[in-house]
Amino acid sequence: MILTKCDGEIMTNKNQQHTELKQQIYLQRVNQLHVKIRNWLQDKPLILENSNMEVVEPLWHYKAPRLSLKTDLGELADLFSKGTSVLLGEGLIEIEGIVGVESIIYMLKDGLIITDRNGKDRPMYKGINQDGWYWIEDSYRNKAHLLNKPLFFDLITLVSDYEF
Amino acid sequence: MSSSPLFNPLPSLWISFQMAENAFKVAKRTIRSPIVKSDDCQLELLNYQRHLLNHTKFPTKGNIEQLIQQSEKDSKDLFILGLWATFERFVRDYLQQKGAVLQQSMQPPKLADSFYQHLYKEVEYWKPVDILDFLKDSLFTTVGGKNLIGMAKQILEYRDWVAHGKNPNKLPSATYLKPKIVYETLNEIINTLLKHYP
Question: How many domains does chain A have?
Answer without folding.
Answer: 1
